[in-house]
Amino acid sequence: MILGVRWIAYKGKEPDILLMTTKISKYSGSGDPSTPSGPTGRLRRRRGSNEVPPEAIKENGSDLLVNDINKYKSMLIRTYSSVWMIGGFAFIIYMGHLYIWAMVVVIQIFMAKELFNLLRRAHEDRHLPGFRLLNWHFFFTAMLFVYGRILNQRLANTVTSDKFLYQLVSRFIKYHMVTCYFLYIAGFMWFILTLKKKMYKYQFSQYAWTHMILIVVFTQSSFTVANIFEGIFWFLLPVSLIVINDIAAYFFGFFLGRTPLIKLSPKKTWEGFIGASVTTILSAFLLANILGRSQWLTCPRKDLSTGWLHCDPGPLFKPEYFALPEWFPWREIPILPVQWHALWLGLFASIIAPFGGFFASGFKRAFKIKDFGDSIPGHGGITDRMDCQMVMAVFAYIYHQSFVAPQSTTIEMLMDQILMNLTLEEQLDLYTKLGQMIQGRQFGESYLNN
Amino acid sequence: MQKDNDSGGPSTPSGLTGRLRRRKGSNEVPPEVVKANGNHLLVNDRNKYKSMLIRIYSSVWMIGGFAFIIYMGHLYIWAMVVVIQIFMARELFNLLRRAHEDRRLRGFRLLNWHFFFTAMLFVYGRILNQRLANTVTSDTFLHKLVSGFIKYHMVTCYFLYIAGFMWFILTLKKKMYKYQFGQYAWTHMILIVVFTQSSFTVANIFEGIFWFLLPASLIVINDIAAYFFGFFFGRTPLIKLSPKKTWEGFIGASFATILSAFVLANILGRFQWLTCPRKDLSTGWLHCDPGPLFKPGYSPVPQWFPQWFPWREIPILPVQWHAAGLGLFSSIIAPFGGFFASGFKRAFKIKDFGDSIPGHGGITDRMDCQMVMAVFAYIYHQSFIVAQSVSIEVIMDQILMNLTFEEQRALYMKLEQILQEKVFGES
């Protein structure tokens, strides 16, 4: 607090009591500042804690972190909250798949709440009671749809022991799409029936905004959860790479940053960007080796239990030994094939994922907001932390589906799936379909050979 | 009438008194129309016969063209859906574009079409990959190309999308951020609305033209019946959003739709061209075993039917009961798509989405109820008619994408062995 006052006095301005109160309350997370009138009788305009103070926007050149005198203080606060976030995250990883899923759901709810609140205009909302409830209705429908699709098979595998529950779950799986559709249509009809005469434009904008938020939030979280159940490795590695990239960019920029990177984010520098890229790719290679040795992280979870996991990790996690030149202390090093995949993930995390951050910065500039929220001291809201993660989660899922799964899917695995998950009728059905597909191709090839 | 038929906007003549008239875009609602809310029922409109003639003329052309395309087959229907999509997207893209801001942002419209192309590749690649694989069995080179495409389909579409995303960010201009973000969000909403319903429509088409033709016809019948019931009997307004709609039209159309659904399903269900699914992308004639839904069950005519009725028992296809359900949905819930579009036009003060079709407005005006119906028809079909387990689809997908042809054959042999043991072991 004292540092804050000294900083403002150093800047050569009359101590702006309101600005000081705003900064302090933002760090400690308490309520809005009030509007005192100063001794000269002028009413100071209440500055929302989310608005960018105008002098920050004008001095574009001197915004680099190297020049900011307050940087050590802010670095301490950011480090403090980062340590808490990383510690909590590591604990959840230890607890297991189901708890990670719960964490993703909680993060989603907070992100959606921040984003729903963002463009809401208070005075119009008073005319429309129940409109916020509509937003949460759509949120609930989306959650049912997305998680129902991803987890229906695993849900069925969990309740095989109880006949009644199994019937209930199979019925749920069968009519899952219809249920979600009718929930959505109910929300759609409710929206239309509550359109009020002079508020059409506001209501339609809010409706579109709700859809955009839900799409952004649920696409990436559904892919994240799909990755988790394929093996925590495929969730933990991309997330860690983004965190490493962020931290490395921050410190490279802190100590070496000179050339600004992009006008959208004036605090980012080319030195930070390149330094972080090299660091990320290197740590991807190493981290994959370390993480790939743990069965807790590499085994897929076939049901919704929480116990310990044992499985055959598959060809990707079996070490191959490479011989090294003489001047190295070790004769040969074990390389897991998955490390080469991790290199690609690292490359993407350092080059393309930051564009998620640029998008969020541009968005904040467009709508003149400083942060999406203020839940995390020194970092802003949850959406501020998740912007790059979202782009990475989608890429990790698609990469896994296209390049990793074909390598690690074997005939035995598919046979196991078929025998375990399908009833006899379904197996016969699959058999006929597969036969049709193969015979079609066989006929074509033999025709060609003749 | 001039507004409905001409394409360009009116110019700005300055009147003899020297006043400059504000140029009224052909899409803006003339203020007197909005104020006289009560006098809007079709019964009171003097010009109604003239407008009815124009609507009938263009309706006849639309229905005729549609019937021709149905006769041509699945591939041509798909092409028609794609063409309709392109026109809808173009209408909607143009709608909220502001001319003076666009002049400073070159290449921004190109970005919209880039996202459109990516969405098309993604959606149709997913639906048709299985059928595409079945079509190119004869040529090994094409076969390799197609399997490569199927395998790397998601990655390709993802990188196309990311390229567009990065292009968008790199072309953000200083004082235009808000406009550009608004346009970006608008583009996404349009593509979602347009592609969700068209992807479900195309999925329905390849399951059997019946499942595309019946819902589309029901919406058309509902529209036409509501128009004529409102024309002759309309008195009580239905909803403030659409002042021309009446309760009499709504209820009359509901009855007409459910009845015609029942009858139409019987007529349409007798043709193999309409009821057989298409397994590949060929265009030839189709023969198949239609399945239990399309086999007539004879039920005796009830006692209270008059004596002169020639038939003692009537053939009812089981699918007719499903059709009654579809009819119910299309008369009660699908009109909400029309209300949504009306509310949207009121909110943004536009009269029609476009002016391609004389008497009806733009293509989006015709498709608004169809969109809601297409999604419902697909979901109904997947849940109640096919009753296909999601697990089979997931496993088939995995087999198709992750195994080579030899591995697939090996899996098939193994499965054959195990199933034979199971089936013959039990008997």
From TrEMBL, chain A:
Topological type in the membrane: Multi-pass membrane protein
Descriptive protein name: Phosphatidate cytidylyltransferase
Subcellular localization(s) per the UniProt record: Membrane
Cofactor comment: Requires a divalent cation for activity.
Chief subcellular location: membrane
Similarity-based family: Belongs to the CDS family.
Pathway: Lipid metabolism; Phospholipid metabolism; CDP-diacylglycerol biosynthesis; CDP-diacylglycerol from sn-glycerol 3-phosphate: step 3/3
Family matches, as PROSITE patterns: CDS
Gene Ontology biological process: CDP-diacylglycerol biosynthetic process
Family matches, as PANTHER family: PHOSPHATIDATE CYTIDYLYLTRANSFERASE (PTHR13773), PHOSPHATIDATE CYTIDYLYLTRANSFERASE, PHOTORECEPTOR-SPECIFIC (PTHR13773:SF8)
Species this protein is from: Forsythia ovata
Keywords associated with the record: Lipid biosynthesis, Lipid metabolism, Membrane, Nucleotidyltransferase, Phospholipid biosynthesis, Phospholipid metabolism, Transferase, Transmembrane, Transmembrane helix
Cofactor section: Mg(2+)
This protein's record includes keyword Transmembrane: yes
Any Pfam family the entry gives: CTP_transf_1
EC number: 2.7.7.41
Cited function: May be involved in the synthesis of minor phospholipids and in modulation of IP3-mediated signal transduction.
Catalytic activity reported: a 1,2-diacyl-sn-glycero-3-phosphate + CTP + H(+) = a CDP-1,2-diacyl-sn-glycerol + diphosphate
Biased composition regions of type Low complexity, renumbered to the chain: 28-41
UniProtKB/TrEMBL annotation, chain B:
CC cofactor note: Requires a divalent cation for activity.
Membrane topology: Multi-pass membrane protein
Pathway: Lipid metabolism; Phospholipid metabolism; CDP-diacylglycerol biosynthesis; CDP-diacylglycerol from sn-glycerol 3-phosphate: step 3/3
Co-factor requirement: Mg(2+)
Compositionally biased residues, Low complexity: 7-18
Keyword list, A-Z: Lipid biosynthesis, Lipid metabolism, Membrane, Nucleotidyltransferase, Phospholipid biosynthesis, Phospholipid metabolism, Transferase, Transmembrane, Transmembrane helix
PROSITE patterns: CDS (PS01315)
PANTHER family assigned: PHOSPHATIDATE CYTIDYLYLTRANSFERASE (PTHR13773), PHOSPHATIDATE CYTIDYLYLTRANSFERASE, PHOTORECEPTOR-SPECIFIC (PTHR13773:SF8)
Top EC class, one word: transferase
Entries under InterPro entries matching the protein: PC_trans, PC_Trfase_euk
One cellular component term from this protein's GO annotations in UniProt: membrane
Name of the protein in question: Phosphatidate cytidylyltransferase
Cell location: Membrane
Protein family: Belongs to the CDS family.
EC number: 2.7.7.41
